[in-house]
Amino acid sequence: MITTASQLKERSLLGLKELSRNEIESILDRAHYWESQPEKLVPVLQSRFAANMFFENSTRTRFSFEMAEKRLGAQVLNFSAAASSVEKGESIYDTVRTLESMGIDAGVIRLKPAGVLQELAEKVSVPLVNAGDGNNEHPTQALLDLYTMRKTFGELKGLRVSIIGDILHSRVARSNLWALQKFGAKVSFCAPDNMQAPDLAAYAPYVPMQEALQADVVMMLRVQLERHAEGMLRSADEYREQYGLTEKRAANLKPGTIIMHPAPVNRNVEIDSAVVESEQSRIFPQMANGVPIRMAVMERAMKL
């Protein structure tokens, strides 16, 4: 069966900025269906092959995709740049084209450089799913975040969501912003001056920490030390003091406020360890919700 360019575009998931509210809602609804299934294995993608191509390390996201693909009965190929010919100089494009030539039905890709994924998607003939590209987008993380919020509050319209931390380097912040605003949620950012993304200021306001903590959803971001220029973070203790969700600050949140974080967590830097484990925390449920979300996304990409 030949897949047309139009079908490829519809089955791929490169970001949420261009995805319609109806499409996002359809994925959330399908994830709810998969979560409600009592059987762990429902092989609707039997005989389909998915390649998880991670040119940037991510244990949690890769395992989540792999779990989702295997629960749907797909055959899974895992690729890690650290143990591949990319280290010998082979290009990302050639690697994807090689796996495409071998007959994969969809590719999940995680990349450090932003913008490369869009170029790849225009050159290959299999659906591609973005597992994180640079500081551009991380659509499945945002989808599982929306799913977690919807499970807690019933709907997203009118929710006040504060995203706090390293906005500049965060693809999670961008995908959440684009998606949440389509549903009528009110997004605010809070960050030190040198971690603010000027390009996003036109879409959501930057507010002081005290105001950010008045939200229905307080989403803390990981301080991405590996992406920082030298000197960007003077000390972890100072960051925690000014922008961390400490036990003291968490104690003053509204009773109905939930705490989220895309993980992995720098405990006792952007969020105190006791807060991670608190009743208001949804951090581990977020991880659990990633599997049905990615089942819905991979089914959308590969189902005949």
Automatic annotation (TrEMBL):
Pfam families per the UniProt record, alphabetical: OTCace, OTCace_N
GO CC terms in record: cytosol
Record keywords, A-Z: Pyrimidine biosynthesis, Transferase
Keyword Protein biosynthesis part of the UniProt annotation: no
Pathway the protein takes part in: Pyrimidine metabolism; UMP biosynthesis via de novo pathway; (S)-dihydroorotate from bicarbonate: step 2/3
InterPro entries: Asp/Orn_carbamoyltranf_P-bd, Asp/Orn_carbamoylTrfase, Asp/Orn_carbamoylTrfase_sf, Asp_carbamoyltransf, Asp_carbamoyltransf_Asp/Orn-bd
Binding site for carbamoyl phosphate: 60-61, 110, 138, 141, 263-264
Domain Aspartate/ornithine carbamoyltransferase carbamoyl-P binding positions: 11-150
Molecular function GO labels: amino acid binding; aspartate carbamoyltransferase activity
Example of a GO biological process term: 'de novo' pyrimidine nucleobase biosynthetic process
Catalytically driven reaction(s): carbamoyl phosphate + L-aspartate = N-carbamoyl-L-aspartate + phosphate + H(+)
Coiled coil (residue ranges): none
EC annotation from Swiss-Prot or TrEMBL: 2.1.3.2
Chain ranges of the Aspartate/ornithine carbamoyltransferase Asp/Orn-binding domain: 157-299
Cited function: Catalyzes the condensation of carbamoyl phosphate and aspartate to form carbamoyl aspartate and inorganic phosphate, the committed step in the de novo pyrimidine nucleotide biosynthesis pathway.
Family per similarity comment: Belongs to the aspartate/ornithine carbamoyltransferase superfamily. ATCase family.
Record's subunit section: Heterododecamer (2C3:3R2) of six catalytic PyrB chains organized as two trimers (C3), and six regulatory PyrI chains organized as three dimers (R2).
Protein name: Aspartate carbamoyltransferase
Organism name: Paenibacillus polymyxa
